[in-house]
Amino acid sequence: MTSASPSPTPDRPNLHPPAVSSVGPSNSAVSTSDAFHPSHLWRHGLLVTISLLVGFALYAVGLRDDTLAVAVIVLLCLSYWATGWLPDFLVSLLLMFLLATCTSLGATVVFSGFTSSAFWLVFSGAVIGMSLSVTGLGERVASRLADHCGHAYGLALAGFVGIAFALGIVMPSTLGRIAILTPIVLSFCDRVGLVQGRPGRTGLMLATALASCELSTAILPANLPNLVMAGTAETVLGLRLGYGEYAVALVPTLAIARGIVLVIVASRLFPDRLTTLGSGRTDTSTVADTPMRPDEKRLLGALTLMLALWLTEPWHHIAAGWVGLGVALLCLGPLRLVNPDAFLKQVKLAPLWFVAAIIGLTAAVDHAGLASALRPVLARLDLAQMSTMPAFLTLVALSIALTFLVTSNAAPALYTPLVPALALGAPLSVKAVLLAQTVGISTIALPYQAPPLVLAMALAGIGIRDATRYCLATAVVALVTVVPLTALWWQAIGLIHLFES
């Protein structure tokens, strides 16, 4: 018996929307027409003027050609994303249009997002999310989680943040973790009454997504920035980072303390209460104890295959996106889990444009040489005249600034080669200078700095405004708590010496 029918059944209503929904416009204060209302035109004039003024300043200091054009275009589009003064899919298209017409980078670079693994993870995540919904497997998993985390909103936040971190230990792909967790979180939200529009649904999803991105920084092989840093450190510095010593240095603060920050901020920004288990919908124990149906077993087998292929990527070298696409095709085709016609009617393209634009932005910054243009300036940063704490804070600020410029994925490739120059005469060891960047890389102030977070927003339909509010709030709280705690912890384990000049 097939479960391809898209319509919800009485015993398993489909309360949450399809996995891919609009990112940003749903929460935006203005529609496309309102954005260009005469009373709002000053906004566009302001952002264009600021971008041009910054462009003239960069020209005065020596930036030219594509490097200058990319800097101005990126600043303009990031300003629109941050303010929400244009719908996000329009900003995405504007970015690609300007890069294609105002630079010589070419379509291969500008539209590289469409050929990336992450882009197709968004598509496959939509199919898998819909499969989890229509088969009821997502509800089954959610009901099990509800037994342990569904009694209080704060407990649910802490539970999913903890799950996101634990999954990072065994699954070295942030994109993969988010693709797996997102539909489960959404099903859990439906199970405990956090339906579409409830603040708790947004808070729970953002906390889980940001935990997947930030807390994994404390586990050496858990994300791409860590691998870039470790690989560059070994080849450029001859410094090999050990798994154990890395975890000792970072887990107490960048995982535990930062995880507490994520939970507290989410509970304050998105306060909510869970519906008492067993009220309204089918009782949790009944759903959990019912034998699995054939379509659930088929989906579970497909997900097991996908997870196995993700974990063995170092051997077969097939990117996570292509694995996800293959499993999505199985769900749409031979496994008969999702009705293709229903999927085409429900899927929205805005998240795909958003993800493609972010990836194209990163590629444009890299190919235009914007990071290389900054390298001579950064190399002249002199820490020799500073005491330990100011030097540590300067390095953290530098790494945060780099994530704004080139995103967290690319920041280690720019920072790590500078370590010998930065450590020269500094009151910090080479290893401390190297690891200081992890504090900055794990401090995400705007969603675009962490491409996996953009993926989570796309899959869950989280608006850019809510995501920006949460990222900014957690970043500010982390700067006044996690950063000094990290310095104190490093003092305790002998990595730095705060009380020596």
From TrEMBL:
* UniProt membrane topology term: Multi-pass membrane protein
Transmembrane spans: 41-60, 67-83, 89-111, 118-138, 150-170, 246-270, 315-338, 350-374, 386-406, 418-439, 445-464, 471-492
Q: Does the keyword Zinc apply?
A: no
Question: Which segments of the protein form a coiled coil according to its record?
Answer: none
Tell me, what's a Pfam family for it?
Na_sulph_symp
Quote the subcellular location field of this record: Membrane
Report keywords, A-Z.
Membrane, Transmembrane, Transmembrane helix
Instruction: Outline the segment boundaries, as ranges, of region: Disordered.
Output: 1-26
Q: What is its main location?
A: membrane
> What is the name of this protein?
Sodium/sulfate symporter
GO MF, one annotated term: transmembrane transporter activity
Q: Which InterPro entries match?
A: DASS-Related_Transporters, SLC13A/DASS
A Gene Ontology cellular-component term: plasma membrane
